[in-house]
Amino acid sequence: MSTTANGKPPRDELVRAIGGGLELRDDDESEGPRLVGHFARFGEWAEIDSVFEGHFMERVARGAFMKTIEENRDRIRVLFQHGQDPQIGDKPLGPIDVLREDSRGPYYEVPLLDVPYVRDLVPALKAGLYGASFRFSVLRESFKRDAKPSDHNPEGIPERTLHEVALREFGPVTFPAYAGATAGVRSMTDEFMLGRYRSAMLEQRFDNEDLSTLAQMIELGTVYIDEQDDPGDEVNVPVMQGVVKTLTSLLPYEVSEDEAPEDEDESASDGRSAPADEHAAPSRAPADGTPRTTGSTWPKTAADVWEELWSP
């Protein structure tokens, strides 16, 4: 399982989605359509199986959103596809009119803006073709590494309960259903991170040809997983997840290769070391000071790549 230095799953820039979770109300022509619903449900266990996050059970405790709603509501946005749609980007869908916790979960009401890019979404919203999703960071949690098998956790995998989160944004997303998967919550963190990575490639923050090829292979693998929706296809999902995980473990190597100086052969021709580039980025090292290894996979190598992509 992908873990942080303290042995727990990652806590920052996580994404969860639920089927349904939103409704388009258009019964008042004077106000226009409103997006309403719950983007999370309290107390429901969900199996998180993510290349980046690992494999564990998770639930959200009542009260987890109260502080972030009270203190950060003005900074929370409502976006389509977490701002990664190629046409809409990070344009807001509307202002938040209502955002509160009720007995089911965080409840919202958002009057949609009367602009072309929002109007284009209305038919699919009316047809119920999107799920609800939110992006967040974990502030307080309880984590049981040695959980016992139970009705909600037949395999006895680790369990995490979220007691307080920092909500960044929420909104409608496409919600592909995996064959054999139960309805409910799923992690979309992997898709979100790959979206960030693709954006960085388009901005030419990384331009190595091998890196670009690797990104395309990872994207194709992710698309393949999303399309496994026929009977019997569920056996293909873990196989391709393993392939994507292996490909992703190569990203840090390609990034470091892309940043390497092109004239290193010339610098060594006279037997002397090349002077340090005062403008070069400092070498990253784990927070605990342990040396980096080359044989590790996603949990110990890719975090630096995502840190680079998240940096301003």
Would you give an account of this structure?
By secondary structure, this protein is an alpha+beta fold. The protein folds into 2 domains: 12-187, no CATH class; 189-259 and 293-312, no CATH class. It is built from 9 helices and 11 strands. It has helices at residues 66-72, 116-119, 122-126, 189-202, 209-226, 236-248, 251-259, 264-267, 298-310; strands at 14-18, 23-25, 34-38, 46-50, 54-60, 77-78, 98-101, 106-111, 131-144, 159-173, 185-187. Strands 1, 4, 5, 6, 9, 10 and 11 form a 7-stranded mixed beta sheet that branches. A 4-stranded antiparallel beta sheet has the order 2-3-8-7. Strand 7 (98-101) and strand 8 (106-111) form a beta hairpin. The longest helix is centred in the C-terminal third of the chain and has 18 residues, at 209-226.
Features:
2 domains; four-stranded antiparallel β-sheet; 28% helix; 9 helices; single chain; seven-stranded mixed β-sheet; disordered C terminus; alpha+beta; 312 residues
Biggest sheet overview? 7 strands, mixed
What is the averaged pLDDT score?
76
- What's the β-strand tally? 11
Approximate helicity band: 25-40%
Distance between the termini: 28 Å
- The helix tally amounts to 9
Q: Provide the gyration radius in Å.
A: 22 Å
What count of domains describes the coordinates? Answer: 2
* Uncertain stretches of 5 or more adjacent residues: 177-183, 258-312
Secondary-structure content class: alpha+beta
Q: What's the helix-strand series?
A: EEEEEHEEEHHEEEHHHHHH
Determine the strand fraction and express it as a percent band.
Answer: 15-25%
- Overall shape: globular
